Amino acid sequence: MIEKIDHIGIAVNSIEERLRFFKDMLSLELAGTEEINDQKVKVAFVKVGDVNIELLEPTDPASPIAKFIAKKGEGIHHIALKTNNISETLKHLNENNITLIDSAPRQGAHGKKIAFIHPKSTGGVLIELCQE
Prior knowledge:
- By secondary structure, this protein is an alpha+beta fold.
- It has helices spanning 15-25, 64-72, 86-95, and strands at residues 2-11, 29-36, 41-48, 51-58, 75-83, 106-107, 113-117, 127-131.
- Strands 2-3-4-1-5-8-7-6 form an 8-stranded mixed beta sheet.
- The mean pLDDT is 96.
C-alpha cells in the first residue's frame, strides 16, 4: 500500500528566506514552486535524493498553514507517504477506525491526489497520503 516517503512538509513564513538555507548552505536543488489557491499556500520542493522537502508558505492569514505557524511556529508540518492507490488506502484506514481529515482524495501540488490522516490516530503526526 505505502511505497515510500514522498516528502516532508515544513511550514515557513517565507519560502525565499528558507531557500537560501537549503540551496545556498546545503547545496540542494530546487525542484520547483507552485501556488495552490484552494489551500491558500505557496509550495517549493527541494530535492534530497529521492525524497523532497516541501516548503509551505501561507498566502492568506486564514490558511491552515498560517494558523499552524501562529500556533506552533515554523517547522515540520507533515510527512507525506506515497501510495499506489489512495482510494483503497483511505478505505482500509477508515474500515480500521483511523480518523481521517479527508475521506476522499483531493488535488494537491504537482497534480497529485492527496488526503490527510488526523494526528490523533498517528501519535501526533499529521500524515499526508499522496498518489501520482
